[in-house]
Structure formats: C-alpha cells, structure tokens
Amino acid sequence: MKTTAMTTAATHPTAAPRERVDAEEWPALAAGLDAHGSALTSRPVLSPAECRAVAAFYDEPGRFRSTVDMARHRFGSGQYRYFAYPVPEPVRALRAAFYPRLLPIARDWAARLRQPAPWPDSLDEWLAMCHDGGQTRPTPILLRYGAGDWNALHRDLYGDLVFPLQVVIGLDVPGDDYSGGEFLMTEQRPRAQTRGSSTTLPQGHALVFTTRDRPVRSARGWSAGPMRHGVSTVRDGRRHTLGLVFHDAA
Ligand SMILES: O=C(O)CCC(=O)C(=O)O
Ligand SMILES: [Fe+2]
C-alpha cells in the first residue's frame, strides 16, 4: 500500500464505519463546530469503494420510501430519495455512530442557549421517542445532482422533536466527478445582514453542521443564530451525497 494512502480509510479496509467515526479527533471537530456552525471530519468515514456502493443505492428504488423532485416543490433542482426502514449498511451504522459523538455537543449547545435537551444516550432510544411522538418515518437521504441542479437554502425540520446537528457525506471526488456544487450555509445575524460560507465536500468525509440554530456569543451571554444550508449549482458532472438527520419525520 502506498504511504500516500496512510490517512485515508483505505488504509484500514476492515475498519468499520463506527471505528472511523470513533477515531475522529472529536474535541477539534467540536471546536470547529463552535466557531463556524459546521466542521469536516479530518479523515474519510467511507472508503472510495464504499462511497460508490452507497451512491449506487440510488438506482435501487426498493430501498427508498419516497423520491422528491426538488423543482416540483421549488426546493431547487434535482432529486433525492428517503431511505425506507430498515436503512442499509453502512448508512445505519454511520447514523448510530455519529449520534453519541454529537450528543455532548448538542447538550452543551442547549445548555448555553437555555433550551431543553431531551436527547437520550442512544440513537435507538431517541428514535423510539420520535416514533412515540408521531415522527415515525426515516430521514436519511441520498441525493443526486446533475449539471444545473442545486439545493435551495433550507432547514431539515420534520416536527417538534429536533436533534440540533446533522451530517452530510460527500460520495464523489469534487473537481473530477463534478464541478460547482459547494455545500452552502448561511447564518442570520440579529439586526445585521446574513453571513455565508461554502464547503467543498471531499470524497468520504463527513461535514457535521447545525440543523436550526447555533449558539452565538452576545452581550448578555448566548443567543440562537439561525442557520440554513443548501448546495450551489452543479456546473458539470454528477454529485451524490448521503444526508443523515437524527430525528425522524412525521
Ligand atoms: O447535498 C448536500 O450537500 C446537502 C444535502 C442536504 O440538504 C442535507 O444533507 O440535508
Ligand atoms: Fe438538508
């Protein structure tokens, strides 16, 4: 194996997605999230072959509960599909592995914002709470964008039960497989104009980002900074992403 592959998931072909998520430097990632409201993993959580395999699920309609035509809903242009339960591997494992890592950050943010933190220790317990509350439908999605496609700035809220952080994983090689298609975030500032940021998703890396609000330091302590996310227009090629939201949908 070439030494240049040392930092990629390919170095550990047998490592499970959970081990890769656990190997992340979580204090550094949490610091990035605190500073910017989003942060990329330092290493891939999926190998290139796993990325291709997940992207290929798109052509197996039986794995999905519904397909959304973004133009029809005026969400942008392109398509995405909601996985049906049982969600396939490695999607299930990644969702379960990220949840306990994001939980301390979610609780910390809620404490700063003086908001309730209703999230139990495991994803299974939290999903049971969602299901009891009428949010029974799975929210992991697979997105496919072709040239000219884009995703309007939005928030993935599906009911009263909300987990405040989510994950998107890039499945293609930016620059090779597609151009354009940057992940976008905006932060609405109180009594001021909106701030924007963009991130190019390296293949297999996960971007953790704010679902609704991030804590922003204010004169009186902390206030909620409303955030939205979307994707800029893909100029050429095809872009796939895996989106992991931790609350289920009504
Ligand atoms: O395709 C992307 O990069 C973002 C998709 C999205 O809106 C999400 O994962 O919630
Ligand atoms: Fe989204």
TrEMBL record:
GO terms for molecular function: metal ion binding; oxidoreductase activity. Residues 1-21 are annotated as: Disordered. Residues 136-249 form the Fe2OG dioxygenase domain. Residues 1-16 have a biased composition (Low complexity). Keywords: Iron, Metal-binding, Oxidoreductase. The keyword Oxidoreductase applies. InterPro entries: DUF2086 (IPR018655), Oxoglu/Fe-dep_dioxygenase_dom (IPR005123). Signal peptide: none annotated. The keyword RNA-binding does not apply. It holds the Pfam family Oxygenase-NA. Belongs to the iron/ascorbate-dependent oxidoreductase family. This is Fe2OG dioxygenase domain-containing protein. It comes from Actinacidiphila glaucinigra.
